[in-house]
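Hey all, sorry for the wall of text incoming. These are the two entities for the joint prediction.
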Amino acid sequence: MYEFSTLGWVRHVIFHPSEGFEDLRWKKQGSIKLSIIIVVLLFVAMVANNRMVGFAFNTNTVKVFNVVPLIVQSVVYFITWCIGNWCICTLLDGEGTFRKIVIYSAYALVPYIFCTYIAVIFSNFIIKEESIWFTFFSYLGLGWSVVLMISAMKAVHQYSLTKTLVSIFLTLVAMLLILFLAILLLSLFQQVYVFVYTVYTEIAYRIRG
Amino acid sequence: MNGSKNSLKRLISLLAAGCMALTMSVTAFADEPYNSYNYDNWDAAIPSQAGYTVEKVLSGQSMDFSKLRDQSDPLYISDTESTSLSEARDFYNYKDEELWVADTSNNRILRLDKDFKLTGCYKGVTGTSKAEGVESLPDGSGTVFKEPQGLFVTDSPTTGKQTVYIADYANARVVRATVESATELKLEQEYLKPTEALYTSKTFNPTKVVVDYAENVYAVVKSVNTGSVQFKADGSFTGFYGANRVAVTAAVIAQKLWRKIASNEQIEGMSRNVPVEYANFDMDDEGFIYTVTEVTTSTDAVKKINPAGYNIWDNVVGDEYKFGDHTDAVWDMATKKTYATKLTDIAVSSDGLINVLDFETGRVFQYDRLCNLICIFGTKNSAADQRGSFSTPNAVEVFNGKVLVLEGSKTRNDITVFKMTTFGENLHKAFELYDEGLYVEAAPYWNEVIKRDGGYTYAHVGLGKADLKNHKYHDAMERFEIANDKDDYDKAFEYYRDEWLQGHFTGIAVVVVILVVLWIAKKILDKMGIRIFRKKGEK
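and here's what came out:
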């Protein structure tokens, strides 16, 4: 049983939140290429939610648009999530490899991405009185993805539910740590760069006399 | 040969350049010493056109104050009488015919005519005074003014005579007097320090005065923070009116908490949180009293008080009235000072325009009757005195459609007259029609506004509403999007959607019917075992 195409597997795990990821693991399925496409689609969904949502629903400042925070909110958060989860679960006897964590996490995000697109399209056809449809789809996607993510982490590491929740919490802490260190490193490198550049200008002035 | 031709060419071009330079210098024009700006819907200051421009600056000389020293003139007082204003604090527009000025440090009241020429000067009032410690006039016929800071001129509803109310600051009285001649004010009634226990302040130094149609007198009194002191026409004290509240800041809340745990001795040592007294007030034609308070917080900075003493412009009930600059305190590099909005005077004109004067920045903020910001003009004095800049702007008044700002410091005393620009005229007409709901009629004026300032938010809102009335919903949506007006956009979109659905109903119905038919056909074919789309791996 369970002979699906790559996309068929995505459909299967989405509509079978409790068993889908176990099946995926048992059959050793999942495509890293598709995962990357999903993360890119997540980024596009973020941009769409920022720029293409109906004017009356757009709470963002439409005067300026900066793509960097959106990259951070989608791609960077996803990568840190995977790294953090891998680090924590390696220590907590998790069975998942890094590749599997990436694939399973990406698959779990699909409902959120899909519902965001639907909400964005809907928002262009509804008025504020009917905003319930907009919020409904936003929250539906989010909730579904959270459930799937828990299920995915449970399957990939072969944890009990409690251990999964604890590991997810620790992963969030690890993400914070990673991002903090990354920012710290960035600012340190900036200072090193400024120092080197100052030395360079100093020498350049001396040589010119 | 060639060389001489070249030099001739050079000479001609040089001449041409010289001519250009000359004409350019000739076309230099008088500009405001500041950049006009306005606020967009994101609370960001954006450049705008000037709604008002300086027409003239009136000094004592241009107002004919020299008459006071001219022995042949009926207004003659003495050879040493000051011929300029001195730290004048207030002025009042009497029916657009006369301008009355409280010339504070010269201890006199001045009357100017329509052309700002002196027609009256009053050093005191005739009649016997009941106030204590008031000096007599030189001829003994009455008592003098001492630092009069506020005044109010009206026709008395009982006698029909032109009546002046003067907040005689240092004499601790408010005076009601009738205008008898160019030099004589006759005392009718004095409003002195109330003897009632309700009045707890030790002093009574009135700074501003307003009178309502029932001849009740409202006086702002220095260091009385329980509201303006209210008197009946006969001089009896009736209470306080429209007190300010304490702005709820973190410091105030913290102190409230400390008070709960502190001992009585400690509480005595604490400072008390009391509201700030008004800086000034004004009354409109409908009898509403407008007050301004020099506070840095937004609480009660500008109030419109109804006869019961309640503030109509209260943000607590969910409205968002904003006055003055939208920014928080700003640190200025040049003067090394922090500037926070400090609203010092308000003037409401007969056509409902509200002018608020910011003492710190020297700016006049003009609002329509619904508190929409129309324009901003005036600026702080920098190193040099320039037309349209102020160092101590004390009062603002509207006079025949012009906005006057009274500058009264130790070094500079004058009245600056701002006149409307074409931009300002269009704005006023547009806002007047817009506020009455005549959006279509306002549209041509909004178009004129947009020609001069394409970023003027209300113009886009106004044109959008006009489009909405003309059933041009899609145009209206575009206008509202520019103005970032989400609620009106939503309304326009609702109509647009209804219109679109009605217009395309046949098409939509046909598509739906075709889809349903196709779906049923597919079901039937499936049942009959005929597959149109074969699934993968199926045979």
